[in-house]
Write a structure and sequence with these properties.
Layout lengths: L19 E10 L9 E10 L4 H12 L18 E4 L2 E4 L14 E4 L6 E3 L2 E2 L2 H9 L19 H5 L18 H5 L6 H11 L7 H9 L12 H5 L6 H16 L1
Parallel strand pairs: 1-5
Antiparallel strand pairs: 1-2, 3-4, 3-5, 6-7
Helix pairs in contact: 2-5, 5-6, 5-8, 6-8
């Protein structure tokens, strides 16, 4: 029998070859058909340290348990569909390397919190998108349709550039303790997307959005715990953006 690279111990692999190792994922499972509480299943796969948690989940689904259910699409941190709790923190599975989450111990993988679980790692995103739609995430202008591009300076664009990076993954919102317990709170992502338009020099709907966010205790429910900022995979300063929206409300009120 001809020996293959996989047969060789890691220490004997050719120079430059990334060694493999066994890693265990402890996955929270839930199936509505069973009508039971969620359970934990453990799976061990062979992977590289530079593999991502998403790669390990694919190995499990393709090779061990095809019923494992999770969302993913682009696999490059752009679509935001694979947000989940990994070792107790909200992350994107496609951006989290196994070597960065202590693979020597079982890696826990759970659905994000605060949203109804549909199956395994998939949650119902409708409450999240309902809040997003409520803040009117589109340009509002008055008057006739312009005959040329609406000009904006680099400085004007810089004012809201950070909050244009949101990919609607819900990592920030589902990391917020207030969102977990208060059904009236819009959540950080909705406020971030309102910020993006409130401070856009081309938009005329800032007053309307501020009134919406002032209702139902809107932004005032934020307790500045910075969970949202820490959870954002795009590095948005979420807590700062919320504070700026609060300040805009106070300034316009007086």
């Amino acid at each position: 029998m001809t020996a293959t690279l996989e047969d060789a111990p890691a220490a004997e692999q050719p120079a430059g070859e990334i060694p493999t190792f066994d890693v265990t994922l402890r996955v929270r499972r839930y199936s509505p058909e069973n009508g039971e509480e969620s359970t934990w299943d453990e799976f061990t796969v062979t992977a590289h340290g530079t593999d991502r948690v998403l790669d390990a989940l694919h190995m499990i689904k393709w090779e061990k348990d095809g019923s494992l259910t999770f969302r993913r699409s682009c696999a490059h941190g752009v679509c935001g569909s694979d947000a989940m709790r990994i070792n107790g923190r909200n992350r994107l599975a496609c951006k989290t390397l196994l070597k960065d989450v202590n693979p020597d111990k079982p890696i826990t993988v759970e659905p994000i919190k605060g949203l109804p679980v549909l199956k395994d790692l998939v949650v119902d995103m409708e409450p999240f998108f309902a809040s997003y739609r409520e803040i009117m995430p589109f340009l509002i202008t008055h008057g006739n349709e312009p005959s040329r591009e609406r000009i904006q300076s680099a400085e004007q664009r810089e004012r809201f550039d950070d909050t244009t990076k949101c990919i609607l993954c819900a990592a920030c919102t589902s990391s917020c303790p207030v969102f977990w317990t208060d059904g009236q709170y819009f959540g950080p992502a909705a406020i971030v997307n309102a910020h993006r338009f409130i401070f856009d020099s081309r938009d005329d709907g800032a007053t309307q959005r501020l009134e919406i966010l002032n209702d139902k205790e809107g932004v005032w429910r934020c307790r500045t715990t910075f969970n949202c900022t820490e959870a954002c995979p795009r590095g948005i300063e979420v807590t700062k953006a919320i504070a700026e929206v609060k300040q805009a409300m106070i300034t316009r009120a007086f």
